[in-house]
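Marked as duplicate of an earlier ticket. Keeping the data here for the record.
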Amino acid sequence: MAVTREQIFAVADELDTAGQKPTLAAVRKALGGGSFTTISEAMNEWRARKASQAAPIREPAPPAVADRLAEAGTEIWSLALELANARLASEREALEQARQEAEQARREAAELADQLTGELDEARARIEALERERREAEQAAAGLRGQLAEAQEQAHTAEARAAELRTELDRAHQESAQARQALAEAREEAATLRGRLEASSEQMAALIARLAPSDGQGRGRK
């Protein structure tokens, strides 16, 4: 909720009545918050009003002076009062100049404070955003580590299976080589047997040929 000028004036009056200096920090603390720029501008107006309410010095001449100087003394006293008022006006002008310079400095300080407050809020928001991004990155990294572990386990399983397949393939190659060797030996043995069979067939044919005439002669004798 924004702080109004009337609230700032009321707090400044209370502090001034209590004998406390109504500084920007004291007023802001009593209000419970508020923009430094708003409080600074309102306090400048409050100080200007208070300064304008100061009445010029007007005091009657002391009785002793009045008795001795009578009318001349009264004129001299009036002249002294005029000089005092002129001096007061000059000092008030110098005070106003100093007040304006102080007002400018306070305004710049208040603007700087508001700017720094905004930058601090932005920095906090940025830190919170970075913290969220960090947590999300850590969660993503944890997920990737889990996937990597699973992939590594699958790779180990695949490597073990590949080793088994290589062993089975080597065994199959060995068995195939043994089968080829056995086939070659069987073919060689079959060729040998065919040779023997052919030789036996030739011997049998020759034997039959030798036996055939003897059988004819025997039939003739009968």
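See parent ticket for discussion. Helices lie at 5-17, 24-31, 36-52, 63-221.
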